[in-house]
UniProtKB/TrEMBL annotation:
Residues 9-64 form the HTH lacI-type domain. One of its GO terms (molecular function) is transcription cis-regulatory region binding. It comes from Acidipropionibacterium virtanenii. This is HTH-type transcriptional regulator GalS. It comes from the Bacteria. InterPro entries: HTH_LacI, LacI/GalR-like_sensor, Lambda_DNA-bd_dom_sf, Peripla_BP_I. PANTHER family: HTH-TYPE TRANSCRIPTIONAL REGULATOR GALS, LACI-RELATED TRANSCRIPTIONAL REPRESSOR. Keywords: DNA-binding, Transcription, Transcription regulation. The gene is galS. PROSITE patterns: HTH_LACI_2.
């Protein structure tokens, strides 16, 4: 039961109720710099809960020079891919006593500077970019001392730390899995990439087909959403020699592919098998459930935050393996 005073509780109130000094209370709240015994720490936490004490973020910022805010720039939040990264980052940040503050570009060049500058002006301690900015100078907004990392990038970017999944290996696992089922005509549905990035999924798809001596299938390049997947599948299936399997560049595209195939009266995976990329929660609840290569969202989120805390370290690239999650859309499960 909370025992709240008429005025907001202070650190002194917590110290008095716990029978410790205000310095010890600070050590518990800030998790250091000195160690506090588990028994004393619990007394302080119990006092904080009883009094409903909330540390003053502004006071903390004035004293430490840090706000506890981590800025994250994303193109959108509706896409399950970005939503899962945001959730993983926020969970990890909370364990560190920090919070995620979003800046959304909506994939419009005119909004990019406002999104980044608003985070910098709010005093974020660091920046995570999960977006390809048209104006490359915006990556350096806030000065060279502000820690920053590019998320969803497995390649080396000069002067920037990057964290991403092994896209090439993940795409290869997806396409090789379809080949192992005996498919010879394997289509790809994706979209043109923003900025200077190359769609490694499409590159690897083409490489695997060539390596196995399989006929080339013109890719369907639409947009990175359900509608794009729907249009792409309709385009592929309208060709003179339609594919018997489709590699979808994302889970959202995969969901759109499934709808198009259902409307065309095609059985999945009997007539057309489908494998998607990303492995978000949405892929498990489509019909049939999508076989997908999953990105390790939680591991990459934790690594991104570790990189931000490694001040003074030379920027490097952290690459994580992907996992093939076998479900019903590829033909492995009845």
């Amino acid at each position: 039961m909370s025992v709240k005073p008429a005025r907001p509780a202070t650190r002194t109130d917590v110290a008095r109720l716990a029978g410790v000094s205000t310095t010890v209370v600070s050590y518990v709240i800030n998790d250091g710099p000195r160690r506090v015994t588990s028994r004393t720490r619990q007394r302080v936490l119990d006092a904080i809960e009883r009094l409903g004490y909330r540390p003053n973020a502004n006071a903390r910022a004035l004293k430490t020079g840090e706000t506890g805010l981590i800025g994250m720039v994303v193109p959108e939040v509706v896409n399950a891919y970005f939503a899962e990264f945001i959730q993983a980052l926020d969970r990890a940040a909370q364990t560190m006593g920090s919070s995620i503050l979003l800046g959304i570009t909506y994939e419009e060049a005119g909004r990019e500077e406002r999104a980044v500058r608003s985070l910098v002006d709010r005093g974020v301690d660091s920046l995570i970019y999960q977006v390809d900015l048209a104006d490359q100078r915006l990556y350096q907004l806030g000065g060279g001392d502000l820690p920053r990392v590019l998320l969803d990038r497995s390649d080396v970017v000069p002067g920037m730390a990057t964290v991403g999944a092994d896209t090439e290996a993940g795409a290869r696992a997806a396409v090789e899995h379809l080949v192992s089922h005996g498919h010879e005509r394997i289509g790809y549905v994706g979209s043109p990439m923003a900025g200077r990035k190359v769609d490694l999924r499409r590159v690897v798809w083409d490489e695997v087909l060539r390596e196995h001596g399989l006929p080339g299938v013109p890719p369907a390049l639409t947009s990175w959403n359900r509608e794009g997947g729907y249009r792409g599948a309709r385009e592929l299936m309208a060709s003179d020699e339609p594919p018997t399997a489709i590699f979808a560049g994302s889970d959202l595209i995969g969901v759109g592919v499934l709808r198009a195939l259902h409307e065309l009266g095609m059985d999945v995976p009997g007539d057309v098998a489908v494998v998607s990329f990303d492995g978000t929660a949405e892929s498990a609840y489509s019909w049939p459930p999508l076989t997908a290569v999953r990105q390790p969202f939680e591991e990459m989120a934790r690594r991104a935050l570790e990189v931000l805390s490694e001040r003074g370290e030379a920027p490097g690239s952290s690459v994580f393996p992907m996992q093939l999650i076998v479900r019903g859309s590829c033909g492995c499960q009845g």
